[in-house]
Amino acid sequence: MHKDNLLCEACPKGKQVKNYFFEQKKIVSTSRLLQLLHLDLFVPTRYAFIRGKRYKLVIVDNYSRLIWVMFLAHKDDSFRVFFKFYKRVQNGKKCITSVESDHIEEFDNKNFQLFCEPNHW
Question: pTM, whole model, 2 decimals?
Answer without folding.
Answer: 0.70
